[in-house]
Amino acid sequence: MRIAEVSKIALLQSMVLLSWQYERPGSSNRPDTTMDYRNRINQAMRYMRAHSDQQLCIAAIAAQAHFSPFHFHRIFSAFTGETVGEYITRIRMAKAAKLLEDGCSVADAGAAVGYQTTSAFIKVFRKAFGMLPARRPGREKLRYPPGPAKTKRPAGTLQAAIRELPDLPLLYLSKKGVENEFFNAGATFDLLYDYLNQHELSSHVQLRLGVLRDMELLDTAQWRFDACIVLPEALEHVPVKPMERCLISAGKWAVFLHKGPYDTLWQTWSQAYRTWLPYSNMQLREVPPFEVYLNSRKNTPPEELLTEIHLPVRE
């Protein structure tokens, strides 16, 4: 398939409700692959607890769970409800609080839970507990940082369509840094469309995509959100900084339809990794997953927004 066929994809996406295939979980005589995923995640968590005094990285943690570093963060978050960094911080703060209660000094407590400087430890401790760290022998015990709040999971079985897509040449604008797992994708797209309007390209947009990159890094401040569009092949536009070009390579994708506000997209992402992937008999390719926005927040009520989530898969 050539990129000239991208316009056909856009047409098909206007008919998404007709294209879904029902993906049934595994039969009762097959091993519980969800439990296998949970066991592997638990092994990674045990490794993080045992090495909380060391400098940790996604590659080493993912290896304990036999997952690819490329997708481990997404799988971990789907099963636990928090990022790897949030989990590490939580177990470190719980350990540090216990050390302080036992009479340990602030500097020693910080070093014992993996912080290279006391100032870095103090900053994180204060954010976790709302107070400065101090020796606490005989004083009231600190309330340890809680785990992620349990949220209501969407009911029902997730549906997926398996699609072969051509190369997607993208024009994109990046925003680096993710705070509290949220990023202002809308503002990034606004900047992108300012550029498109200046260059009279808005009417030529065929697809609008969002790609969250660099999740194999532990620090969410290093993650990057790309607001992307696909233009017709015949339109030979040379991007001007800060715009860039990149390519999402052709391949097979598991596609999930999400209907509703963008701030609930995590629910479908979570279901895809937690309840669909373990039973799918498919493996993830080393390609970033992405979102395709089928309508616009500018003229669509939040509850009517349609977004396709694309997971790169192979047999």
UniProtKB/TrEMBL annotation:
Residue intervals of the HTH araC/xylS-type domain: 42-139
Lineage: Bacteria, Pseudomonadati, Bacteroidota, Chitinophagia, Chitinophagales
Any Pfam family: HTH_18
SMART domains with a match to the protein in the record: AraC_E_bind, HTH_ARAC
InterPro entries: AraC_E-bd, GyrI-like, Homeodomain-like_sf, HTH_AraC, HTH_AraC-typ_CS, Reg_factor_effector_dom_sf, SmbC-like
Keyword tags: DNA-binding, Transcription, Transcription regulation
Molecular functions per Gene Ontology: DNA-binding transcription factor activity; sequence-specific DNA binding
Superkingdom, natural source: Bacteria
Name this protein carries in UniProt: Transcriptional regulator, AraC family
Naturally occurring in which organism (per UniProt): Chitinophaga rupis
PANTHER family (UniProt xref): TRANSCRIPTIONAL REGULATOR YGIV-RELATED (PTHR40055:SF1)
